UniProtKB/TrEMBL annotation:
Pfam families, alphabetized: GST_N
PANTHER family reported in the protein's UniProt record: MALEYLACETOACETATE ISOMERASE
GO biological process: glutathione metabolic process; L-phenylalanine catabolic process
GST N-terminal domain mapped to chain residues: 1-65
InterPro entries recorded: Glutathione-S-Trfase_C_sf, Glutathione_S-Trfase, Glutathione_S-Trfase_N, Thioredoxin-like_sf
Recorded superkingdom: Eukaryota
Entry protein name: GST N-terminal domain-containing protein
GO molecular function, one term: glutathione transferase activity
PROSITE patterns: GST_NTER (PS50404)
Length: 157
């Protein structure tokens, strides 16, 4: 939603309450058979997955790019997005946590999440992942002071 606002586009926001299972309804699964959020519906085009949506919007509206034109800076942004989407964010999803808790118990689940989320933050972090890491898993962000790279996506040259 933030990216759509950055493009200055008008859009209809539809909230999906995952706690109530709205992402698993037949209607929603027609848009995204995996049952994940978010989903972008742009006319006949349906795109799901945050990164895919961002790339779609960036390509469709090149007059207002999200990514820098500099290849090295663009690669750093791709790296940041991949680390978060493949190493940090999945570990905060409830189905993953329920599975781990079922295997090792509640206390070990917290230690497991702290360890793996912390490894991701040792490489890089994005703001959307910080709050749950601190509040939900008590990850001490102080230990990353010298090792964290913050990517500013709007940094253009």
């Amino acid at each position: 939603m933030i990216a759509i606002k950055d493009f200055g586009l008008s859009f209809d926001y539809v909230a999906v309450n995952m706690a109530k299972g709205e992402h698993l309804t037949a209607e929603y699964l027609k848009l995204n058979p995996l049952g994940y959020v978010p989903v972008l519906v742009d006319g006949d085009t349906i795109v799901f997955d945050s990164f895919a949506i961002l790339m779609y919007l960036d390509d469709k509206y090149p007059q207002q790019p999200l990514l820098p034109h500099d290849l090295q800076k663009k690669a750093i942004n791709y790296q940041a997005a991949n680390i978060v989407s493949s190493r940090i964010q999945p570990l905060q999803n409830q189905p993953m946590l329920n599975f781990v808790e079922g295997k090792v118990g509640l206390d070990e689940k917290l230690a497991w999440a702290q360890y793996h989320i912390g490894k991701g933050f040792a490489d890089i972090f994005l703001a959307a992942q910080i709050h749950p890491a601190i509040k939900k898993f008590n990850v001490d962000m102080v230990v990353f002071d010298a090792r964290v790279l913050v990517v500013v996506i709007s940094d253009y040259d």
